[in-house]
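Lecture 7 notes: from sequence to structure.
We start with the chain below.
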Amino acid sequence: MTKISVVDYGIGNIKSICSALEKSDADIVLTDNRREILSSHGLILPGVGAFAHGMEKLISKKLDKIINDFVTTGKPLLGICLGMQMLFEKSSEFGDTPGLGLIPGEVLRLQSNKNVSEKLPFVSWSEIKPPENQSWSNTILNGINCNDHMYFVHSYYAKPKDKENVLSVTEYSDKDYCSTVKRGNVYGCQYHPEKSADKGLKIINNFVEICRG
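Predicted structure tokens for the same chain:
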């Protein structure tokens, strides 16, 4: 059976992620153990809350190094919400904080258009759509439609340096930002697929299938 480890560092919507994985017939391990993680077919980094606190918790358990070592094996990693943001080089939330550095780019605060009144955190069922010339085939978004909606809760967004790493975009205050990212074997979702009904569960299942190879 395909073994998927969920990083256990005291932050994240663990229960709903594990429930979603169970529906994909995966062997789920909630762990912070290096051997367990490196022996897995795939790894999920969940997270909610502030970037600096998340990184502090990872570093305190040396999980930053373990996650980097896992990625070098070529096996798939999926970051969700804060977990996606921590894949990047740094965040400007409460001052600059270094991230895992797995994807070139930074995390910035969502900015409202002066002509459009928007509240933060951004809590919404919103559409994800592919940027120009981007295909979702053979990715975690395979079989997802460009008008499908996912569940978002966040105040910051990730901005990759390389536009080719942007797998989907979502509109906030009349401006598109990166909502799904891919760089090699590293994926990230700003939204919560585990809370996004059938389409979100399909994304989780796609990730498991990619882990199966």
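Points to note: The chain is about 25% helix and 30% strand. The mean pLDDT is 94.
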